[in-house]
Design brief:
401 residues; alpha+beta; 9-stranded mixed beta sheet; 8-stranded mixed beta sheet; 31% helix; globular; disordered N terminus
């Protein structure tokens, strides 16, 4: 049991009400009952950004480097997420998914995924071209693998349940504008409304704003969030796809490519691509925030990415600006798709941590400072892995108390 000293509003102050912040609050109160947790979220409700704007996929962990946090937490987190959803009546299904090679150059990468999946303890079935139709009659490819542990769920409903189950005080519509940290005492944050909230330890789960919060706290994160927008379409003929269909990803990038996802509502999402966003929360080309764009352009890593990956980026940009080009990309997997089958729907933005030398941070990144724990890279599969990530962040926060 952790008591609150006079003058503190809480023991642990969490900034960010997405699934990772709420999972952390949930884990803290479970590990140390009586610990007072306050969550500050600038939006009027939970899970308004990365959590609520993704494909809703419970990832198996097949893609991630064996031994990495992503591999360990995704494999463990997928099983826990299914169990959590079942326990609380949250819509979910374990659907399995196909990863399909449509070009000979992709076959060695597909085989490498089989090996990686097995190293991560994930059952994978290899399929020849004729066997693909057993799972997806309209999908074409040279070969595929079937990953049985992949699923889908409503991550926003999961976030709400975590918020409710945590017993934390959650303040929505509360934007942090200043952080005053005293290593011998704790932290005080000033909100946009002029309120001061005091805690003994700060946990930064601010997603798209996490590097900004780290700097406000006085810790140099030595990375920047470079936002990438992922644009989605809805399939007007959802009967073309039974489940989840993915291309073979390029190992040089943390993005999985344009894929097809039948969600829990029965609709089929198509996407996302990956283009630079002109604001941290830039869900369309029309949203430009000059200060945020300036921060991205001032970071040396942004220029290194552009220099190294301009060919890849040009293709993504073309698919963003041309529906015909996007349709062509989908048609490699699903030849029956036509341009008229794709109906624009809500976009998402990925909070991608980039190092000074242009390295796209591949793994989850959690760093500590005096009386602070910062989650600095938690894009996909963070929703899948949110329960184990929350426990790890909680462990560090409680140790700092």
């Amino acid at each position: 049991m952790v008591g609150v000293r006079t003058g503190y509003d809480c023991d642990v102050l969490v900034i960010g009400g997405g699934i990772v912040g709420l999972s952390t609050a949930y884990a803290i109160t479970r590990a140390a009952p009586g610990t007072r947790v306050t969550v500050l979220e600038k939006e009027p409700g939970p899970a308004r950004h990365q959590t609520g704007r993704n494909s809703g996929v419970i990832h198996s962990g097949v893609y991630y480097r064996p031994g990495s946090l992503k591999a360990r937490y995704a494999v463990r987190g997928a099983a826990e997420m299914v169990k959590f959803c079942a326990e609380y009546g949250i819509p979910h299904a374990v659907t399995g998914k196909l990863i399909v090679a449509t070009d000979r150059a992709e076959l060695p990468r597909l085989h490498a995924l089989v090996q990686r999946g097995r190293e991560n303890g994930i059952p994978v079935r290899e399929l020849g071209a004729s066997q693909i139709a057993e799972y997806e009659p309209e999908v074409r490819g040279l070969a595929a693998i079937h990953v049985g542990t992949t699923g889908i769920c409503d991550f926003v409903a999961v976030a709400r349940q975590l918020a409710h189950g945590s017993g934390a005080e959650i303040r929505y519509g509360t934007r942090v504008v200043r952080v005053d940290r005293r290593p011998e005492r704790g932290v005080a944050v000033l909100t946009a409304a002029g309120d001061v909230v005091r805690g003994r330890v700060l946990v930064n789960c601010a997603g798209l704003q996490c590097d900004e919060i780290a700097r406000l706290t006085g810790d140099d994160p030595d990375m920047r969030i470079v936002p990438f927008r992922g644009e989605y379409y809805e399939l007007a003929r959802p009967e073309l796809v039974r489940g989840l269909v993915y291309p073979v990803p390029d190992p040089a990038f943390p993005f999985l490519g344009v894929h097809l996802t039948r969600g829990i509502d029965g609709g089929v999402h198509v996407g996302p691509n990956a283009v630079p966003a002109l604001a941290r929360e830039g869900y369309g080309w029309g949203t430009v925030r000059l200060r945020e764009l300036g921060s991205t352009l001032a970071w040396p890593g942004s220029w290194q990415i552009a220099r190294r990956h301009w060919r890849y980026g040009t293709g993504e940009l073309r698919r963003s600006l041309s529906k015909a080009a996007f349709t062509d990309a989908v048609g490699r997997l699903l030849p029956a798709v036509a341009e008229g089958d794709l109906v624009p729907t809500a976009a998402g933005v990925r909070a991608q941590a980039v190092l000074r030398d242009g390295t796209l941070v591949d793994d989850f990144l959690i760093r500590e400072g005096p009386r602070a724990v910062h989650v600095l890279n938690a894009p996909s599969p963070a929703a899948t892995a949110s329960l184990p990530i929350g426990r790890e962040v909680a462990r560090r926060a409680l140790a700092a108390l």
